[in-house]
Amino acid sequence: MLTAVVIVYSLYFLVNLYVSTMQIGFIAQAKNKKPVLLDASSFVKAAEYAIQKERISMAKSFVDYIVVLAWITGGISYLHSVIFLQNEALRSVVIVLAFVFINGVIFLPFSIYEKFVLDQKFGFNNSTVAQYIKDLAVTTILTAVIGGFVIWGIYLIISSFSFWWLYSFVFIFAIIILINIFFPTIRALFFDKLSALDDKELADEIAALMNKTGFVSSGVFVSDASKRDSRLNAYFGGLGKTKRVVLFDTLLNKLTKKELLAVLGHELGHFAHGDIYKNITVTGIMLFIMFFIFGNLPANLYLQMGLAPAPYLIMILFLIFLPVMSFVLMPIIGLVSRHNEFEADVMGAKLGGQIELASALQKLVKENKTFPLSHPVYIFFHYTHPPIVDRLKALDVDIDDDKSALEGPCVQ
Length: 412
Hints:
By secondary structure, this protein is mostly helical.
């Protein structure tokens, strides 16, 4: 059985590697062709950034593969042998957190390189070393506190019920819903400084836009995201009464008011279509499948690893294979998500204007240095949003006409 587990993870690694290789080769050829949506130098620069990001991803995949093999062929057993605590619940919490933090340390150099070398080179990084260390410390503490609580809860469930996988699924799914509810509050408390939007005219227009779809928000806020990164973004966070609109200050600085309203119209389209609840449902289905599989693993798998099927071992194996299951299900999730994005674009064009939304999308490509083309296989496995070219075509932008692609849609 252990051999089968290794084969499954090896196939996941090889397919991942193949998809990345196809993407790099595709972009390397495309960057020498006629530019799309960007001027020639920006087109090449965006291609180089995408290629380097994908190479880092490949390196991470290779390290991940080695690390996973090390864990399942002796690493987990080693943690079991060196962590001695009389309280079994506490011991499980410490072992699983040790697994998480050791992985975090192993992959930390990749994060540092991406932030302070790659993103710095391409003009994205605004973060200082002190800010990065602070964010890392806060993330580590939150992981230890919240993660420790979750691990303890799963330990109690596994130890108490024969159908532990079903109750564990319910417990984790409830945690996910709570995270969605309190995410804006947690982010505001520990990471971003949020301030009320001081442009009353814009705030009133946003409120009018929200009223058209029945979106009730606890407020419109501006995040000081530029202290870390120059990319443009915005999000609707929370569920129920905790819903709020958060605009990155970078977005406010780069988009016109009409373009910004069109982007928010797109996000309101997700709300109007219930996409957040669809996404939570899809996540729930994926987790249910995962818990069902891990609740019915043969006992000889654990014996071959030299360990009893203890709660901490089940949790670690779950964490190891969660990315595999996500990768397998991603084509289905991506297909649904891309459809939802097209539908949200229709709403964005209706609420904020077709020309304004198309113009905003093009600015996002330019400012975020997004390479507008991708290999179909890469899109199939990785894209939750349609390629920007396809979104613009759906908005009647003729991307083959440089002038019209820069000025806006061809409205009949």
